[in-house]
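Continuing the batch. This is chain 6 of the set; chains 1 through 5 are on the previous pages. Same settings as before, nothing changed between runs. Recording input and output for traceability.
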Amino acid sequence: MMRMQRWILWAVLAVVGLTVMFFVARYAKREYHLRQPSKIWVPIALRADLPIADQKKLAEQIEVKLRTEEILRAVVLDLGLQVKFNQPVEDAAVKELSRRLFVEVGSADTPNGSVPSINIGVSGIGHESKLLGEVSMRIIRDVWLIIGIDPETGKPSKSGDTPPLDEL
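Output for chain 6:
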């Protein structure tokens, strides 16, 4: 009788030990992935027939206008990024935002299939994904103004159409 109880005790301890190991491994895997580099962006879909050279030119023009001190500082102030980026002064937060900001040519999935796009966003680590999303959404409002779209309605501004590439 005593032998049977020991066997049951060891079986229970083994099950508890394996369960603890499973949850520790799961937690470690999650933490590992959350510490990996992460990019959050908002795509601006383009016409499918727009040549790649024009896509790159448009992306460069948007990036030049977006990386101005005025726009970056406004984003830092609006979202309180000095504290969230753990920077001692506002200028350091502006530099950090500029370092993390990216504008690249990519593709976006639409109901009509994949189309070319300009992806505008910020990079960081997985733990910051919520913050990166907030920053990307705030930056896209400035991009809409740059390309002539009213951020409130999502439609072209009063001029009636977005400006040509050369006017950006």
